[in-house]
Amino acid sequence: MAYDPGTLEAALSAAVGSDLALIAELRRAFLESAERQIDLLSRARCDANWTMAALRLKGLCASFGVNNVMNLADEALESAPGDPVILRKISRAIAAIETDAQG
């Protein structure tokens, strides 16, 4: 699943216009929250904790229009807690967003 850097940027620009400092702050807040949910997913050992973290990640991505990670969160909901394959996919997708933000 490919990452479209324009999706997050378009959502941020639509929300705050051309205020680059605010866009950067919102992007950072998105990334911090996504990374927090990935950490919770990686530590989840029961269905309830796994599901809650996946739903939070899905909601976060839905509010920022990051559909590819939202779809991965859906995939996580269908996976077993701690599934290393989906955790890697989600981590890579968030890392791609972070790399794009820095570059």
Instruction: Round the Cα radius of gyration to an integer and report it.
Output: 13 Å
Structural class, from helix and strand content?
mainly alpha
Order of helices and strands: HHHHH
How many beta strands in the DSSP annotation? 0
- Low-confidence sequence ranges: none
Distance from first to last alpha carbon: 21 Å
* Biggest sheet details: none
Please tell me what the overall shape is.
elongated
Helicity level: over 70%
Mean pLDDT level: 89
How much of the residues is beta strand, in percent? under 5%
Q: What is the overall number of helices? A: 5
Question: Quick gist of this model?
Answer:
This protein has 103 residues and is mostly helical. The protein has helices at 5-16, 20-43, 47-64, 67-77, 84-102.
